[in-house]
Automatic annotation (TrEMBL):
GO CC annotations, alphabetized: cytoplasm
CDD domains linked: PBP2_HisGs
Catalysis: reaction(s): 1-(5-phospho-beta-D-ribosyl)-ATP + diphosphate = 5-phospho-alpha-D-ribose 1-diphosphate + ATP
Subunit field text: Heteromultimer composed of HisG and HisZ subunits.
Protein name listed in UniProt: ATP phosphoribosyltransferase
Location(s) in or outside the cell: Cytoplasm
Pfam family, one: HisG
Gene3D superfamilies to which the protein is assigned, alphabetical: Periplasmic binding protein-like II
Keyword ATP-binding: yes
Family: Belongs to the ATP phosphoribosyltransferase family. Short subfamily.
Native organism: Lederbergia citri
Gene: hisG
Amino acid sequence: MKPVIALTKGRLEKQFIKFLQERNYDVNPFLDKGRKLQVETDDFFAIFAKGIDVATYVEYGIADLGVVGEDILLEVQPDVFDLLPFPFGKCRFAIAGEPSNLSPLRKQRIATKYPNITTKYFRDQGKSVDIVKLEGSVELAPLLGLADDIVDIVETGNTLKENGLVVKEEMLTISARLIANRNSLKLKRAILTPLIDSFRVEEGII
């Protein structure tokens, strides 16, 4: 029986394939998959989904392991084991806005795709803010007066710069993570342990 790994489609998928290649896994099934959402390799089955769905497939045991952004784990808090960080998918959460925008006299309004992470961050600082949840293009919010600032993931900062926004405060650094279904770790330990061990990176990885 082969392990099943759920992969986040897009950038993390490509970075994980490169990661596998560096560890001498056969990645040809990935390169020739076209629009397929399932692939079988010599070592495991892989399914491809959006990040938040990867966490769900792992939580419900459809997949034994998952490769997902740490932002999903912090925001959704799925019932999975967070096994280890990968050396890719690194970026940071930051508060950003227009450089000339002063702190409002009223309660600050923050636009974000990540209301839980944002609320916790400000609460830990002893601050109360109003959260406006958006699903995309949060950079528009301060430009159109919907919010004072935004909280979002920043990688290169180019999108902020192109829209006249600047990072005002860095919150935390995140990366891609390897997650596991709790029951799979118990029932399939013999087949999962070698795979998990092969994903460990010596420097700074537990």
